[in-house]
């Protein structure tokens, strides 16, 4: 069997799922070199070498790889920070190791303003109405307030405030959810304006879906659709998070989407891709240049944001269901001949278990937090046994946790993801929560309505209402 050395730059369950997919290769003997933000128990077990670079600093990662050039054949990058900081560019300059991720100038999530301006050019009808406020151009608070209030009046107050720089969805505030009057919105706006430009855009009414695709530079291969749960609490309440869980249907569609919706999404992404390719050198876009969050409105799909990396948790729904050898897919990406990916016809549900400090849970639900449990180490033994017993139908991916003195402690972000596979979404969901409930310690909690039939039914009826509205206005 051919030996292959693979670098994985990892953070969170997304990186772990990539390591797992590469480790499961049946066509190659994979030797995995991991650069991680912390000592992850699963990644360090599956790797031949596992190093911690806390800030995923580009120079340090490049130095690590440069010293192992004869062992590493290629690399893949999970989190956005090193992509935005130009890891691919640095790696190509200093080493001969090809990376699967776009170059810095195509890491378009680096600036939400740049994104909106790009979409305004390439796909204006998929862009909500927006206005950019630049702190360097703002002289006077009163005048700014007048401008913001005037724009809010134009939008009928239904507005979303977004910082320019990525904040894993967390700096985003939505009218009706995070503020109920102009003053509250303005306070949120000012708090973000201290850090740079801020967008105020039209609040859209619709159902969200996550489009992901893998690209070899020339071809975009679409992955099945998934639905993320961005809000911290049940019924889509509370602050935005990195994503509390996600689901995928049996085929590539979601229960509330129609084939035409998906085709429209693809047409939108392809238009952006075509425009970006005009500016790109041969393979600069290779990787996952389009993880695009869509919202399906009565006026068709609109883009909420775009990322040049895989979605977390959304990619967890996908990687375990790929029929082809993932390492082989990586080679096709590098060779520029990826035209198709085959999937098992199964549903999957991913659920994150997170610490009490995450998403403001502890402040909101003090009575539910078992204080005496907060500092207890995590115990994944029962969950891992379930993984073995179900032969991988339940998978456990430790994320923001750290192995210290052979004990596992949650850090501040999402702690452990459980992904389950089933013949239906309901079956996958039941297994996922079996896994979630088998994780002990740390007073971790989860959103319990992820992929619940009532939530899905709500999405279907909401979408039906929006479609009727569309027909009414045609
Ligand atoms: P983002 O980081 O831009 O994806 O925003 C995080 C979350 O805020 C999204 O998943 C939506 O739930 C919500 N959101 C963002 N932009 C809008 C918008 N224009 N209209 C309605 N909701 C939005
Ligand atoms: N699930 C949201 C993200 O990956 O940004």
Overview of this protein structure:
34% of the residues lie in helices and 24% in strands. The protein is an alpha+beta fold and 474 residues long. Among the domains are: 2-103, 3-Layer(aba) Sandwich (Rossmann fold), CATH 3.40.50; 129-202, ATP-grasp fold, A domain (Dna Ligase, domain 1, 2-Layer Sandwich). A five-stranded parallel sheet has the order 3-2-1-4-5. The mean pLDDT is 96. Glycine (GLY) binds next to loops.
Task: Pick out its properties.
474 residues; alpha+beta; Rossmann fold; 22 strands; binds adenosine monophosphate; binds glycine
Layout of helices and strands:
Layout lengths: L1 E9 L1 H12 L4 E9 L4 H6 L2 E4 L5 H9 L7 E4 L2 H5 L2 H8 L4 E2 L11 H11 L7 E4 L7 H14 L4 E5 L9 E2 L7 H12 L4 E5 L4 E9 L4 E3 L4 E2 L2 E3 L3 E4 L4 E4 L10 H21 L7 E11 L2 E8 L6 H5 L7 H10 L11 E7 L7 H4 L16 H9 L4 E5 L2 E4 L2 E4 L5 E7 L2 H13 L15 H21 L1
Helix pairs in contact: 3-5, 13-14
The protein binds adenosine monophosphate and glycine.
- Do you know the CATH topology of the domain at 2-103? Rossmann fold
> What is the straight-line distance between the termini?
60 Å
What shape does the CA trace take? globular
Range of helix content: 25-40%
Q: Which stretches are low in confidence, meaning pLDDT under 50 for 5 or more residues running?
A: none
The largest beta-sheet arranges its strands as 3-2-1-4-5
Beta strand count: 22
Number of helices: 15
Mean pLDDT: 96
Task: Specify Rg, calculated over alpha carbons.
Answer: 22 Å
CATH domain class name of the domain at 2-103: Alpha Beta
Subunit organisation of the chains: single chain
Architecture (CATH level 2) name of the domain at 2-103:
3-Layer(aba) Sandwich
Q: What share of residues are in beta strands?
A: 15-25%
């Amino acid at each position: 069997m051919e030996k292959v050395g693979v670098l994985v730059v990892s953070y969170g369950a997304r990186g772990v799922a990539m390591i797992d997919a590469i480790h499961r290769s049946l066509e190659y003997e994979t030797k995995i070199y991991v650069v991680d933000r912390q000592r992850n128990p699963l990644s360090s077990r599956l790797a031949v070498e596992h190093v911690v670079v806390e800030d995923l600093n580009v120079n340090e990662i490049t130095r690590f790889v440069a010293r192992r050039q004869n062992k590493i054949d290629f690399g893949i990058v999970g989190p956005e920070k090193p992509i935005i900081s130009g890891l691919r560019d640095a790696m190509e300059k200093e080493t001969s190791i090809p990376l699967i991720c776009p170059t810095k100038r195509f890491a378009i999530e680096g600036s939400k303003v740049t994104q909106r301006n790009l979409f305004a050019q390439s796909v204006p009808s998929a862009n909500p109405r927006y206005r950019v406020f630049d702190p360097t151009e703002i002289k006077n608070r009163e005048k700014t307030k007048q401008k913001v209030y005037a724009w809010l009046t134009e939008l009928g107050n239904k507005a979303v405030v977004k910082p320019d720089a990525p904040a894993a969805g967390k700096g985003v505030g939505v009218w009706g959810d995070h503020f109920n009057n102009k003053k509250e919105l303005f306070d949120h706006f000012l708090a973000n304006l201290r850090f740079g430009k801020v967008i105020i855009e039209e609040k859209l009414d619709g159902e969200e879906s996550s489009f992901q695709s893998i690209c070899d530079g020339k071809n975009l291969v679409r992955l099945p659709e998934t639905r993320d749960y961005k809000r911290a609490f049940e019924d889509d309440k509370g602050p935005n998070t990195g994503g509390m869980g996600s689901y995928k249907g049996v085929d590539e569609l979601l229960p509330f989407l129609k084939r035409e919706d998906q085709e429209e999404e693809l047409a939108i992404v392809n238009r952006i891709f075509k425009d970006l390719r005009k500016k790109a050198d041969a393979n600069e876009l290779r990787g996952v240049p389009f993880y695009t969050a869509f919202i399906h409105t009565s006026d068709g799909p609109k883009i909420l944001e775009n990322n040049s990396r895989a979605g977390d948790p959304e990619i967890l729904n996908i990687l375990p269901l790929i029929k082809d050898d993932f390492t082989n897919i990586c080679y096709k990406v590098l060779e520029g001949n990826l035209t198709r990916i085959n999937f098992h016809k199964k549903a999957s549900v991913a659920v994150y278990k997170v610490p009490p400090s995450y998403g403001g849970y502890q402040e909101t639900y003090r009575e539910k937090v078992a204080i005496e449990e907060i500092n207890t180490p995590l115990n994944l033994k029962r969950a891992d046994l379930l993984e073995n017993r179900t032969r991988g139908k339940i998978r456990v991916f430790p994320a923001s946790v750290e192995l210290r003195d052979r004990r596992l402690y949650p850090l501040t972000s999402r702690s452990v993801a459980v992904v389950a596979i089933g013949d239906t979404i309901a079956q996958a969901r039941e297994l996922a929560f079996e896994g979630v409930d088998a994780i002990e310690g740390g007073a971790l909690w989860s959103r319990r309505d992820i992929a619940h039939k009532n939530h899905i039914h709500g999405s279907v009826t909401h979408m039906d209402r929006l479609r009727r509205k569309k027909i009414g206005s045609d």
